[in-house]
Amino acid sequence: MLLIVYYVIFMIAGDLSAYLIGLIVEREFGSQVSLIVFLALLLAACGLDDRAEARRTGLIPRLDSKSSGPSMGLAGHSVAG
């Protein structure tokens, strides 16, 4: 349950920041540029939130952890190494 609360908080913060930055860009450069900036920031916020939650749950190991398991290549296939 706590994981869902963190995810919702991070998504609201990311969406709000994307909206505000998009609004500033719209006032300075116009609506077409604002749409591109807003969509890029929204997708980046979603990606960062997903990655942070995956790291928090242990699906993505931290850089400082020394895992002895096999590393995963593209499409989740095991890579010898």
Task: Write up what this structure looks like.
The protein is mostly helical. It has one domain. 68% of the residues lie in helices and 5% in strands. It has two helices and two strands; from the N terminus they run ααββ. The protein has a two-stranded antiparallel ribbon. Helix 1 runs antiparallel to helix 2. The N and C termini lie far apart (37 Å).
Throw out a few tags for this protein:
single chain; 81 residues; mainly alpha; two-stranded antiparallel ribbon; 2 helices; 2 strands; 68% helix; elongated
β-strand amount:
under 5%
Which structural class do you get from the secondary structure elements? mainly alpha
Question: What distance lies between the first and last C-alpha atoms, to the nearest angstrom?
Answer: 37 Å
Question: Strand order of the main beta sheet, please?
Answer: 1-2
**Count of spatially separate domains:** 1
* H/E element order: HHEE
Got a strand count?
2
Shape estimate: elongated
- Helix proportion of residues, in percent? 55-70%
Radius of gyration: 17 Å
Number of helices: 2
Oligomer: single chain
